[in-house]
Specification:
The structure holds 3 protein chains of 3 kinds. By secondary structure, chain A is of the alpha+beta class. Chain A is built from 8 helices and 20 strands. Chain A is elongated. In chain B, 72% of the residues lie in helices and 0% in strands. Chain C is an all-alpha fold. Helix content of chain C is 75%, strand content 0%. Classes of the chains: A alpha+beta, B mainly alpha, C mainly alpha. Chains B and C meet through helix 1, helix 2, helix 4, helix 5 and helix 6 of B and helix 1, helix 3, helix 4, helix 5 and helix 6 of C. Bound molecules: adenosine-5'-diphosphate (ADP) and magnesium ion. Adenosine-5'-diphosphate (ADP) binds next to strand 2 and helix 1 of chain A.
Chain lengths: 357, 300, 275
């Protein structure tokens, strides 16, 4: 992430009538980066991506692609490729015609276009399917055609709008790696929209978390995981989601006391405002059942779900606390257990602003 | 200028051209005439002023004259009978057929589709055929009804004042029945099967299922079909010249045909315009019903 | 739904219902083949004693049907051309956007759809008279009938366009098309079938158009077949075999097209009419 910026967004605003869909979005994407836009449904990810493609007109701000100002430029002059959630394959064209459509529009000679199609079909494994129509393909094959149609363009940027959400789980995991590998091989710049934080975390160099039309936080996947800037990001990134327990910082500011019966105080390893009320964030995978540290929580187990490799324990009732235990456990529903946590893994949030402390 | 052409290729200019051309055309050939119609209904129009736009103002005298015509109330009554009779017949029979064809049997869709030939036939031809079927002395309907023992002597459908409007209604029901059935079939097909299965498990018999599931689920379809039926019936014209020409003695005349007669047989364009303005008000009412019943689709 | 009667019994009932419903058509053909005296037989014969098809040639010549039908074709073609050219673009725009303006446009279209021809004919006639269009009566009829046909066409074709996924057009734009190119090369080909069905429906209904032609076209040389039919049709008509032969010649092409395209027409109508 050092190259010159390929995409620069400054102060982007988008209104749909009275609805403010994008609010003052600033985002710089270096050449060659793989950036994921992630957030709950309806937060404006697609709107931002479509604005980049020129499919939506932005109401304010400036947008540059490869240094050129793009405000008001029609999609066909932006030289970006897009992969749609529904794939948007032209049903009246064969796979080969779908792949070469953009080349034909650019009046690339027939032979050259055919060669490009063969090449792309090779990389995407579509060679035996070139003569088929989209309706004769499986979901995964259609997805590859949509990818191939983007690759053949060698565009300034790839835009993906939830391209994997119509695939089954196994194929989705496989395609994640394949898309990322393609990106690296082509040295492309990619913007990838998804509502699935795992996809964002595993694929992207840089993750942008959006909420209600604003960028909540952006950074590398591990930055977001380790130092979430707000309760929203903390709860959104990571699976199962982080537990939140109200609590109070001790008089010396060195530890925090969860507001739950039977809970012990937790050392923070740092100093925060003495005596203030906080929300304590505890990731399920950081809570250790009967660990060495002093017990933080002591609660009855209400449910035990085992996947074989992991065991998910639900503790207490209000709020429910989720604990992930690797391996097997003898804990049963109804038992009361103690869990502990390392001081460095405790997150604190301001109950009013929900920002990290 | 370049910006203008770019917008035609890439922006909303393209949309504006497409929608604008059609809108201008419709405005010129439907919107303007409508306004002109209202204007004429307040003017004195005769052979000398026919070619002028500015004619002597007549106030509401055309309206007064129309209402005072001896046939006015007869025509009003006939229009109501024609509308209600046609709609009721088309809807009830159409619904019955739609329910019948919703059963699963081989060829159901194809046979149902054949019914629609009535709808694509020219109205005048339909009128001609029914005129022959309904003929008094030699009409086949009379001889079938006699054969079945339903009537003893021939009914003079077209020339008996108490039957003449029904002759047109019968032909109109035949004409519109298939379209009603088709639309109702679509509504029926949209009701999820499992609702019926659930109701059956809850112990509802076929009759109860019809009243508690079919009808309520068809509410919006029925609304649209009824208002389309109303509109179609008000638009019906061709059957009248083919069957009865509004006669005898206006006993089968309705507003639309009367308006045409006033203008094109009596050359009283002012009165013709006046009657058609009155009819337009009726149509406006029908279209409000229609738009209300299709509004959820319009917003979609 | 019920297990007691077999589908075949239902099929038999369906065929019987269809036979009853289509009897008028049958009666048209049968009557046209009967002799002048047989049509007045009592009770009527349900099959002609001596089918005689000569009447077709006779009616064709005596009623100058070639002229009438040719005029019908000209008028219907003109109406269809204007309706398709202007209506398709309008339907596309109304399908593509969602806004208060679009709702207003749709509302206007729906209002026009309900206007009866009998309301429009008086002002159209007087207006055409004033601008001298009555000297070109077929053109006048084409314009008037196209305005009548367009709203219905737009409503149906709009439904067709709505079924073309928006993403396809957007993909084409990103792939390097202008709006014009995407419309002609992606959207139109995908909506082609629906447009074709609606164009055929428009043609058929314009082929049977009566009220405007009857009111506007005075010269028998320019009148369409519907007006030609009305010439010997009235409460006191008696040469029914000739009238039915004329009717049969007139509607048989329409019926053939309909039967061939039945499935498409029905599905086009059902997807559009309720939307
Ligand atoms: N054409 C439109 N008109 C009005 N509102 C829209 C339009 N498109 C999207 N929106 C609204 O903008 C918000 C963001 O939408 P979108 O970007 O599609 O969300 P997502 O993050 O799920 O992709 C949503 O609340 C949506 O309802
Ligand atoms: Mg989205």
């Amino acid at each position: 992430m050092s190259a010159e910026p390929q995409i620069e967004l400054v102060g982007i605003d988008k209104h749909y009538g009275s609805f403010h869909a994008l609010k003052n979005i600033d985002l710089t994407i270096p050449k060659g980066a793989f950036v994921a836009l992630v957030g709950p449904s309806g937060c404006g990810k697609s709107t931002l991506l479509r604005s980049l493609a020129g499919l939506e007109t932005i109401s304010g701000g400036t947008m540059k692609i490869a240094g050129e100002q793009m405000n008001g430029v029609p999609p066909r002059k932006r030289d970006v490729a897009m992969v749609f959630q529904s794939y948007a394959l032209y049903p009246h064209m064969t796979v080969e015609q779908n792949l070469t459509y953009s080349l034909r529009l650019k009046r690339v000679p027939k032979a050259e276009a055919a060669r490009a199609a063969r090449e792309v079909a090779e990389t995407t494994g579509l060679t035996p399917l070139l003569g088929r129509y989209p309706r004769e393909l499986s979901g995964g094959q259609r997805q590859r055609v949509a990818m191939g149609r983007a690759i053949i363009r060698n565009p300034k940027a790839f835009l993906f709008d939830e391209p994997l959400s119509n695939l089954d789980a196994a194929l989705r995991v496989h395609m994640r790696k394949e898309i990322r590998a393609l990106h690296d091989r082509l040295g492309a710049t990619s913007v990838y929209v998804t509502h699935d934080q795992i996809e964002a975390m595993t694929m992207a160099d840089h993750v942008v978390v959006m909420r209600d039309g604003v960028i909540e936080q952006q950074g590398s996947p591990l930055e977001l995981y380790d130092t979430p800037a707000s309760k929203f990001v903390a709860g959104f990134i990571g699976s199962p989601a982080m537990n939140f327990v109200p609590g109070k910082v001790s008089a010396d500011g060195q530890s925090v006391q969860p507001d739950l019966p039977g809970a012990g105080s937790v050392a923070l390893g740092r100093s925060v405002g003495a005596g203030r009320s906080v929300l304590i964030g505890l990731r399920p995978e950081h809570l250790q059942v009967g660990g060495d540290g002093p017990a933080v929580l002591r609660l009855p187990v209400s449910a035990v779900e085992s996947t074989g490799s992991m065991t998910y324990l639900t503790l207490g009732g209000d709020p429910e606390i989720m604990v992930v235990d690797t391996g097997r456990t003898s804990v049963k529903a109804g038992d009361t257990i103690s869990v502990s946590i390392e001081p460095g893994n405790v997150h604190l949030f301001d109950p009013a602003t929900e920002k990290a402390i | 200028m370049a910006k203008f052409f770019n917008s035609l290729r890439d922006g909303v200019g393209f949309d504006l051209i497409l929608v604008g051309a059609a809108m201008v055309f419709l405005l010129a050939l439907a919107g303007l005439p409508l306004v002109y119609n209202v204007l004429m209904s307040f003017q004195q129009v005769d052979m000398f002023t026919l070619g002028q736009l500015i004619r002597p103002f007549a106030g509401i005298s055309n309206y007064v004259a129309v209402v005072q015509q001896p046939e006015f109330w007869m025509v009003t009554r006939n229009t109501l009978v024609f509308v209600v009779g046609s709609m009721a017949g088309q809807f009830v029979l159409g619904f019955a057929l739609a329910v019948f064809f919703a059963q699963k049997f081989p060829g159901a869709a194809t046979i149902r589709g054949l019914f629609l030939v009535s709808w694509v036939m020219p109205g005048l031809v339909v009128g001609a055929i029914w005129s022959w079927i309904l003929a008094g002395d030699f009409g086949v309907l009379n001889s079938i009804l006699r054969g079945l023992g339903i009537i003893q002597s021939n009914i003079f459908w077209k020339s008996d004042p108490s039957f003449s409007i029904w002759a047109v209604i019968i032909a109109n029901i035949w004409l519109g029945l298939a379209f009603n059935m088709l639309l109702l079939s679509v509504g029926l097909a949209a009701i999820p099967r499992d609702l019926y299965e659930a109701a059956e498990l809850d112990g509802a018999n076929a009759w109860q299922r019809f009243w508690t599931i079919t009808l309520p689920m068809m509410r919006s379809t029925i609304g649209a079909v009824l208002s389309l039926g109303l509109i179609g019936t008000l638009q019906q014209f061709d059957l009248f010249p083919a069957l009865t020409e509004g006669g005898p003695a206006n006993t089968s005349n309705v507003a639309g045909y009367w308006s045409w007669q006033l203008s094109f047989q009596l050359y009283d364009f002012a009165k013709g315009a006046t009657v058609s303005v009155m009819m337009f008000v009726l149509v406006l009412f029908a279209s409000i019903l229609y738009v209300r019943s299709t509004r959820h689709e319009v917003r979609g | 739904m019920t297990r007691t009667y077999t589908p075949w019994a239902l099929l038999a009932i369906a065929l019987a219902l269809a036979a009853v419903y289509l009897f008028p058509l049958y009666w048209m053909y049968v009557t046209s083949l009967k002799s002048g005296s047989e049509i007045f037989a009592n009770p009527p014969s349900f099959w002609p004693a001596a089918p005689n098809a000569n009447i077709y040639a006779d009616v064709w010549a005596r009623r100058t049907m070639s002229t009438f039908l040719w005029n019908s074709v000209i008028i219907a073609s003109g109406v269809t051309a204007i309706t398709v050219i202007l209506g398709t673009g309008c339907a596309y725009v109304l399908a593509r956007y969602r806004s208060a303006w679009i709702d207003l446009g749709l509302f206007a279209i729906l209002m026009l759809q309900v206007l009866p021809a009998s309301v429009m004919i008086t002002p159209l006639f007087v207006g055409f008279n004033q601008i001298g269009l009555l000297n070109y009566p077929r053109t006048a009829v084409v314009l008037a009938a196209a305005a009548k046909a367009m709203p219905f066409f737009v409503v149906l074709v709009r439904a067709t366009f709505m079924s073309v996924p928006r993403e396809l057009e957007e993909a084409a734009l990103v792939d390097g098309n202008s709006r014009v190119g995407a419309f002609f090369f992606i959207v139109l080909p995908l909506a082609r079938n629906g447009i074709l069905v609606c164009a055929i429906l428009t043609f058929m209904s314009a082929f049977g158009e009566y009220i405007y032609s009857k009111s506007i076209i005075q010269s028998p040389l320019l009148q369409p077949a519907s007006v030609g039919l009305s010439g010997f049709l009235g409460p006191n008509s008696s040469d029914w075999n000739a009238i039915m032969a004329y009717s049969a010649i007139y509607v048989t092409p329409i019926l053939l097209v309909f039967v061939i395209l039945q499935r498409r027409i029905v599905s086009g109508l059902t997807s559009g009419a309720l939307k």
